[in-house]
Automatic annotation (TrEMBL):
GO molecular function annotations of the record: histone H3K36 demethylase activity; histone H3K4 demethylase activity; iron ion binding
Protein name (Swiss-Prot/TrEMBL): Bifunctional lysine-specific demethylase and histidyl-hydroxylase
Function noted in UniProt: Oxygenase that can act as both a histone lysine demethylase and a ribosomal histidine hydroxylase.
CC annotations in GO: nucleolus
Length: 783
């Protein structure tokens, strides 16, 4: 062909300008003949013209009827969409999906109408499973647009959109995964980086759509989902972590979407939280590894040392074969490593573990509060401390002085190595959320002691150095020496009362006088030291060989601390509150004593006033602060004889303590003291003195009246009481005394134990979900 001759071009069918009604008439006619080639060619053009009109509709203006969309025309268009979304005609279906998405973004009303239309929803979800790339992509985009409202997301889940999307994603992921990358955004943190795939827009569209629906669903819905999808996501997550320090803003071959790494992290967290991703040490294995094989050794510890005095468990005296000890795998992991390789192991790929409130029992509420905050860089003070104690005054100095509460940056591993060389201790918190092996040990320890959670920290201290200054903890600690040696000084309790969890703690010279008598312990590899909460202590690596009385080289120390954290409900004071609740619930069901003549709301008020009175007693009696029912659910049990269980020394001790608690409440608790506290709270509209009551909302309740109690504003519970009895407290005092007497004499220990166990399981479930979720985001540490 002569190059100068004009090419013949295929004539394009152009559509003349139409008003919306004429355009819809053409669309209706073409749809009725969709099986013909002409209609199949014309319909995409008509749909694109419709799409242009929809996208150019101005936002509705208040009090301007002319700016509102025409409902009749939209209804007619919506009625055609189920037919047009059929994947038999891919080009038409893809254009129709764009129409669905555009209409869903027009207004909340249109979004709701689409979501409420069963035929459209069925057609849209079926389009995702069509296997035709263009249709699937269009349907995914439409789902994302529809998911901008709560109703849209709920309806998509009702029509099994998540299951269909999961199936599509797994089919795509069955092929070798193409390279992935991160694209940095405005925020300078990797968790805000967008995810990119090489030339594979379909994969990340499906991923974004399914993650959007999973990240906004209920806990019940999550339990129905297959874990197969989770395996693919974790593989993707691992690949992203490999590229996390190579964020690419210029590589053009990567296609990026709006999904951020924090979104993917939340999806993995949600899918993992109900599935344990680590083995659990039995409490028998934990008991043998710490206390030895004899049951009497553990009993002696509980009756003589628990929350009272420190004790050292030597490796040789408790383990005939250390390889069977639960700590041996940790020692083997670190053994023969250099300090640099240890730091690389424990700090590489580290994420922050955002704190969960102590009384939060809904894991989804936690996820809402930290939205976008999962997989953040580590935060100084919260996740890690780099500290040393210097000078005659033993002042505590931090390596990062201006970073408390802030991220310390991506180069934290190298900075920590430099700090270590300058005498700083690396203290890493939340190890039970970062290591599966440590999580297994923590699980076993919490089962043994009957507590919701056990915290674990790891400390690496250079030679001739002290990390933290003298201080005491608000939890009991087991110090497990993994490598090297360390010398500890432990002082007697600095106060009569044990510190409550989360109370402000004392440090330095304010803790105890240097002249105070103290016990000194030298820990070597495999040794374990128990330190009760409230006992001041300090430790340093061996300064010279004379201190150790053995011929060993001076070196660094690596130790793990396991903290038995006693939440407020699980102190004896908490047990007393549970007992009062349990007695009141039983009484409402079975008795008709004189106080029933008082209104039910007034009765609820007096019960809560007695809760306040119990709190006052607990503030002054050390026994109320101690952990309750410790090891109660790990005692040897004979199902044929509960009497044998009650004769166990630990069980007998718990029953005796319960009797003491009830007698103390009956004889010491004061109406006037409690009334003054609630009166001040009501007059000042101040909840500070009553915030401790928040956890009471987790106790099971019967009846509508109890459900009206707002424990976020507990002073409101007592408002009517103060108004009614202000200046005339004699009648109120008599009612209070009657309720108190009936409670202390009528409460049954076994009933309280049942409610206590139910509450403990609630706390454990939430903390287990948090642990599983955080562990699922941790790659290659102690695997």
């Amino acid at each position: 062909m002569d190059s100068s001759s004009p090419r013949k071009r295929k004539r394009k069918t152009t559509l003349p300008p139409h008003n919306p009604h004429h355009l819809f008439a053409q669309l209706l006619a073409a749809s009725s003949n969709i099986h013909t080639p002409f209609s199949q060619s014309l319909l995409p053009k008509l749909l694109k013209t419709h799409l242009s009109l929809i996208q150019n509709i101005p936002s509705p203006q208040q009090n301007d009827p002319q700016s509102l969309p025409k409902p009749t025309l939209q209804d007619s268009l919506l009625s055609l969409l189920p037919c047009l979304l059929h994947p038999k005609y891919p080009k038409i279906a893809a254009c129709s999906a764009e129409i669905v998405g555009a209409l869903a973004l027009c207004s909340f009303e249109l979004n709701a109408r689409i979501a409420s239309d069963e035929e459209i929803m069925c057609a849209l979800v079926n389009a995702v499973a069509s296997g035709k790339k263009r249709v699937v992509m269009g349907a995914c985009n439409a789902m994302l647009d529809l998911s901008t409202t709560l109703l849209g997301r709920e309806r998509l889940r009702e029509f099994s959109a998540v299951e269909k999307l999961l199936s599509v994603f797994c089919q795509i992921a069955a092929f070798p995964m193409k390279p992935v990358s991160l694209c940095g955004g405005e925020e300078d943190t990797s968790n805000y980086s967008r995810i990119g795939f090489v030339e594979d827009k379909l994969q990340f569209l499906v991923l974004e759509a399914v993650s959007t629906l999973i990240n906004t669903c209920s806990a019940e819905f999550l339990e129905k989902l297959s874990v197969t999808f989770l395996c693919y996501l974790k593989d993707l997550w691992a690949k992203l972590q490999d590229s996390a320090f190579q964020i690419n803003n210029q590589e053009k071959r990567y296609l990026y979407n709006n999904m951020k790494t924090s979104d993917l992290a939340e999806t993995i967290f949600r899918l993992s939280m109900n599935y344990g991703c680590h083995s659990t040490c039995t409490f028998d294995a934990v008991k043998r590894s710490i206390f030895g094989s004899m049951e009497s050794d553990f009993e002696h510890f509980m009756l003589s040392n628990w929350e009272d005095s420190p004790i050292l468990f030597k490796k040789k005296s408790r383990c005939s074969d250390y390889n069977d000890c639960i700590f041996s795998s940790l020692v083997q992991h670190f053994n023969s490593r250099t300090v640099d390789s240890i730091l690389d192991s424990i700090l590489g790929g580290l994420f922050s573990c955002p704190p969960i409130a102590s009384d939060e029992l809904d894991i989804l509420t936690f996820l809402k509060e930290v939205k976008g905050g999962l997989a953040c860089p580590i935060v100084y003070g919260q996740d890690i401390r780099v500290v040393k104690t210097v000078g005659i005054l033993k002042e505590e100095v931090h390596f990062w002085t201006d970073y408390m509460g802030y991220s310390i940056g991506k180069d934290h591993v190298q900075k920590c190595k430099e700090a270590y060389q300058n005498g700083y201790t690396i203290a890493l918190r939340g190890m039970e959320f970062r290591s599966r092996k440590i999580a297994a040990i923590a699980d076993g320890l919490e089962m043994l002691f009957g507590q919701p959670s056990v915290g674990a920290n790891l400390y690496l201290t250079p030679p001739r150095s002290q990390g933290l200054t003298r201080h005491y903890d608000d939890h009991c600690v087991f110090v497990c020496q993994l490598l090297g040696s360390k010398k500890w000084s432990v002082f007697p309790h600095s106060a009569v009362q044990l510190p409550r969890l989360y109370d402000p703690l004392g440090v330095g010279s304010e803790v105890t006088n240097d002249a105070c008598e103290n016990k000194q312990f030298l820990l070597r590899e495999g040794d374990i030291l128990y330190i009760p909460r409230g006992c001041p202590h300090e430790a340093h690596t061996v300064i010279n060989e004379g201190e150790s009385h053995v011929e060993e080289a001076t070196g660094f120390s690596l130790h793990l601390t396991l903290g038995i954290e006693i939440e407020p409900p699980f102190e004896w004071e908490g047990f007393a509150h549970i007992a009062l609740h349990c007695w009141n619930e039983n009484r409402k069901q079975t008795t008709h004593d004189p106080i029933e003549s008082t209104s039910q709301l007034a009765n609820v008020t007096f019960i809560n006033l007695l809760h306040v009175a119990i709190r006052v007693v607990g503030d002054n009696d050390p026994t109320f602060r101690k952990a309750c029912m410790v090891a109660a659910f790990s005692l040897p049990f004979d199902s044929n004889s509960q009497a044998k269980q009650s004769l166990h020394p630990l069980d007998m001790n718990q029953r005796a303590t319960f009797s003491y608690i009830m007698n103390k409440i009956n004889t010491v608790s004061s109406f006037l003291e409690a009334f003054k506290i609630v009166e001040a709270a009501v007059h000042g509209r101040n909840d500070d003195s009553l915030q401790w009551m928040r956890w009471l909302r987790h106790l099971p309740r019967e009846g509508a009246v109890d459900e009206t109690i707002d424990y976020n504003n507990p002073w409101k519970v007592f408002e009517n009481l103060v108004l009614l009895y202000n200046g005339h407290t004699e009648e109120a005092h008599a009612t209070f005394a009657h309720i108190k007497s009936q409670f202390c004499e009528g409460v049954i220990f076994e009933d309280v134990c049942n409610v206590f166990d139910t509450l403990l399981k609630k706390y454990k479930r939430t903390r287990k979900q948090y642990m599983n979720g955080m562990l699922s985001l941790r790659c290659n540490f102690f695997e």
